[in-house]
């Protein structure tokens, strides 16, 4: 009796799994299609990209396109700068937000509630409100336009990161 009911449950589970896969597979293909087309376009010569016909198989011009991209734009250098800025920003942001979060979670000081309220208040501001004054301050007042410092320093104080770190540290024992 129990083997019959367990086989019925497993066949029902198998049916649900098949139905789920039949539903999700077309969605995955729809999601992957633009990515596949980017790969296809990267292998086409210039005239092929603007052709009215749609081709779904790669061509042989990929290395030529990569060489042209590097020659025209110094793409590898740009990627290197992006990675350097991202790694530096991530390291400094985690360092600073964890220090601020630790201080807010572990130390008792006068005005701690006000500091947390101000940090919470900064989350309610849309970034568009801060963007233009921040740009003017960095570019004109500090004269840091077109520097790495202008990319890394202004967004370093991440109030949400400070609050996440504060919450994490306050949940730790000791």
What features would you describe in this structure?
- This protein folds into two domains: 2-73, no CATH class; 75-171.
- Helices cover 78% and strands 0% of the residues.
- Helix 4 (75-106) packs across helix 8 and helix 5 (112-124) crosses helix 8.
- By secondary structure, the chain is an all-alpha fold.
Percent of residues in helices: over 70%
The biggest sheet amounts to: none
- What's the structural domain tally? 2
User: CA-to-CA gap between the ends?
Assistant: 55 Å
- Uncertain segments: none
- What is the structural class? mainly alpha
Number-wise, the strands total 0
- The best one-word shape is flat
- Tally of contiguous helical segments: 8
Mean pLDDT, to the nearest integer, reads 89
Assembly category? single chain
Radius of gyration: 27 Å
Please state roughly what percent of the residues sit in beta strands, choosing from under 5%, 5-15%, 15-25%, 25-35%, 35-45% or over 45%.
under 5%
Please write the string of helix (H) and strand (E) elements.
Answer: HHHHHHHH
């Amino acid at each position: 009796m129990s083997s019959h009911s367990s086989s019925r449950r497993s066949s029902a589970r198998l049916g649900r799994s098949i139905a789920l896969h039949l539903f999700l597979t077309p969605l995955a293909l729809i999601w992957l299609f633009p990515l596949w087309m980017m790969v296809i376009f990267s292998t086409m010569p210039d005239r092929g990209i603007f052709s009215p016909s749609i081709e779904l198989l790669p061509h042989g011009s990929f290395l030529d396109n990569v060489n042209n991209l590097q020659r025209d734009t110094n793409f590898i250098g740009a990627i290197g700068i992006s990675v350097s800025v991202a790694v530096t920003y991530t390291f400094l942001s985690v360092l600073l937000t964890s220090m601020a979060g630790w201080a807010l979670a572990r130390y008792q000081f006068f005005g701690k509630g006000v500091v947390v309220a101000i940090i919470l208040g900064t989350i309610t501001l849309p970034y568009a409100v801060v963007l233009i004054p921040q740009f003017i301050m960095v570019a004109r007042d500090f004269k840091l336009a077109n520097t790495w410092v202008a990319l890394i320093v202004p967004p370093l104080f991440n109030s949400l990161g400070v609050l996440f770190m504060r919450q994490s540290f306050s949940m730790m024992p000791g």
